[in-house]
C-alpha cells in the first residue's frame, strides 16, 4: 500500500515538475493572432507573423453563415460555422507572403499572411517602421 502511495505521489510530482519546466523553457509560447470575418471580409486583411515559428490563428466568424478559411500556399483549410471561432496552426513558414481566402465568398473574403524575417519582426515589435 505504501509503495502505491509513494508511486502516486512521485507521478504527481513528476507531472507538476514537467509542466513547470516546460513553462520555464517557453514551450507553451506559440504566438497567437486573431482574424475576424464579418460581412464576408477578413479583418485585418493583412496579418504579419514571425517567420520560422509556428503560430496559432484564431478566426472568429461574425457572419451568420459558415465560411471556409482556405490557403493553398499554407496548405490549410478550416470550416468555421457562423457565429463561432476556429483555430488554425501554421508554420514554421519561410519569409514571404501567403494568400488566404474564404472558399464560399472568394471575391470578398480575401487576405494575406506575411511571414517576416526575424529582424523585421523584432523591429515591428519594438515599434520600428522597417517591417514594410
Automatic annotation (TrEMBL):
**Short name of one Pfam family for this protein?**
Cupredoxin_1
What is the top-level taxon of the source organism?
Answer: Bacteria
Keyword Signal listed? The answer is yes
The leader peptide range reads 1-26
Using the record's annotation, list all stretches that form the EfeO-type cupredoxin-like domain. 20-115
Keyword vocabulary terms for this entry: Signal
Asked if the record carries the keyword Signal, the reply is yes
SUPFAM superfamilies reported in the protein's UniProt record: Cupredoxins
Task: Spell out the Gene3D superfamilies in the cross-references.
Answer: Cupredoxins - blue copper proteins
InterPro entries the UniProt entry points to: Cupredoxin, EfeO_Cupredoxin
This protein is called: Cupredoxin domain-containing protein
What's the source species for this entry? Rheinheimera tilapiae
Amino acid at each position: 500500500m505504501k509503495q502505491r502511495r509513494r508511486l502516486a505521489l512521485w507521478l504527481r510530482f513528476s507531472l507538476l515538475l514537467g509542466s513547470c519546466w516546460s513553462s520555464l523553457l517557453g514551450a507553451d509560447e506559440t504566438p497567437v493572432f486573431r482574424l475576424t470575418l464579418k460581412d464576408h471580409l477578413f479583418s485585418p486583411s493583412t496579418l504579419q507573423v514571425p517567420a520560422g515559428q509556428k503560430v496559432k490563428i484564431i478566426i472568429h466568424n461574425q457572419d451568420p453563415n459558415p465560411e471556409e478559411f482556405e490557403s493553398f500556399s499554407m496548405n490549410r483549410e478550416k470550416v468555421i460555422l457562423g457565429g463561432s471561432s476556429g483555430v488554425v496552426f501554421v508554420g514554421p513558414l519561410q519569409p514571404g507572403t501567403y494568400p488566404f481566402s474564404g472558399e464560399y465568398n472568394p471575391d470578398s473574403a480575401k487576405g494575406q499572411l506575411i511571414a517576416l524575417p526575424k529582424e523585421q519582426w523584432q523591429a515591428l515589435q519594438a515599434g520600428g517602421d522597417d517591417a514594410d
